Amino acid sequence: MPPTLGTNVLGRKVLYLPSFFTYAKYIVQVDGKIGLFRGLSPRLMSNALSTVTRGSMKKVFPPDEIEQVSNKDDMKTSLKKVVKETSYEMMMQCVSRMLAHPLHVISMRCMVQFVGREAKYSGVLSSIGKIFKEEGLLGFFVGLIPHLLGDVVFLWGCNLLAHFINAYLVDDSVSDTPGGLGNDQNPGSQFSQALAIRSYTKFVMGIAVSMLTYPFLLVGDLMAVNNCGLQAGLPPYSPVFKSWIHCWKYLSVQGQLFRGSSLLFRRVSSGSCFALE
């Protein structure tokens, strides 16, 4: 769908891509409400497999007892705890991602069939057969590397940022003072507030870091459907990429590394070009 002309907060005329709701309304008009749930089955199976994998790994490789990090720890000790915890999380995430990625590829291809009105990928089992026949075993893992890199960068970035904020900016020393503050009737209330701040800090850092790692998700999903026989992954809708690095460079030049990251005000970058019928 082509961009539309609008104005920004400064009153200047700019081009905007259709929003999430515009696309959703169009899909409902073409396929009905069921069209909004293309690729749902393999996506649910992918999430379930990922959850089961992580649970099984925790049983086989139980994590060591990790003490809570506080500002009482020196920098070397507290950082060592965070590195140990993050390394364990990274191992579980990478293994679960690799096992569930084939189902994610099938889910993405089921979704983009809407563009060319195709029905090549219908059921999970039939899709597995088609991919294996046409692309071999590697066909199930296209786009895996950028997804893995995105997961690794997200985990380390989120945990390290949250650690430095929680350990060195959030002070819980008042918990050692009997009665806390002078008018506080609950001696542990200050400590509870520190714990609450720590939990929110990691949540906020997760949102911030996920925005920075969005290009990895975008490139991985584009590679999952690129040159797979569907119109959405072929010219004029998309170039044929040699590798995920080629895809990344192309999006960077076009100014589209963050395309789709916003639900509403999706401004067109100056370098973008669109294939119009």
From TrEMBL:
Cell compartment(s), UniProt: Mitochondrion outer membrane
One of the record's GO cellular component terms: mitochondrial outer membrane
Gene Ontology terms describing biological process: apoptotic process
One protein family per Pfam: Mito_carr
Membrane topology per record: Multi-pass membrane protein
Alphabetically ordered keywords of this record: Apoptosis, Membrane, Methylation, Mitochondrion, Mitochondrion outer membrane, Repeat, Transmembrane, Transmembrane helix, Transport
Transit peptide keyword on record: no
Solcar repeats (start-end): 80-168
Gene3D superfamilies: Mitochondrial carrier domain (1.50.40.10)
InterPro entries: MCP_dom_sf (IPR023395), MCP_transmembrane (IPR018108)
Chain's role: Protein insertase that mediates insertion of transmembrane proteins into the mitochondrial outer membrane. Catalyzes insertion of proteins with alpha-helical transmembrane regions, such as signal-anchored, tail-anchored and multi-pass membrane proteins. Does not mediate insertion of beta-barrel transmembrane proteins. May play a role in apoptosis.
Subunit structure: Interacts with PSEN1.
Homology family: Belongs to the mitochondrial carrier (TC 2.A.29) family.
Record-given protein name: Mitochondrial carrier homolog 1
Gene source species: Homo sapiens
